[in-house]
Design brief:
This protein is an alpha+beta fold. The protein contains five helices and eight strands.
Length: 207
Amino acid sequence: MIALMILTFFIFVILITIGLAYVVKRKWLKCCIIVFLPLTAYFGLFFEHFLQLFVQPIYCHIHQKEAGIVIHTTPEEWKATQGKGIVIQPLDRFKQYDASLFVDADDFDFNYETRKQFGNDEYELSAVNKQNPSIALYIDYGLGTFSKKQYLYYDVDKNRVLATLSQYRIIYESSFLPFPKVGYECEKENLYFELKSYINKNYTASE
């Protein structure tokens, strides 16, 4: 169905192009119509593919040194750091079910900061580590077509940023209904899960 709609659209564009080229007398204007009208129609439908094929490699190459995982506090430094001695306990309703490793901050008797400033970026509280509730996950989702999504792991007890992850991406939303919003990540998709596994392995065990 979608293929038929696209074919019909381009047949219509070609007919319009031929009609305008026939009516217009000036040669330079005729050439412009023949070249730019089909191109405009093509980019209107398939601009996201143009981004993926030509723009994304350049965009990712420019930011390749800024992207990826950065460890701000090593496990050794973390273990050697004295905390405030904050004891965070789960609420009764949370004890009744087996939640995933990262859970809602409202399941604990602690008022986590809903926003965290780090450098020039502001992060929103996303989740808490079940095994070690002093470790909170903050996320800066980024806005715009060319955006940077960032993850930040923070220990509220020791007041230390453990690690951050920056992922550059291109998000494009077509104005044509058959094509939903698409996103192109510069880094491999499982990079966040690698960091999450690293945090669980090195910062949740007893010291």
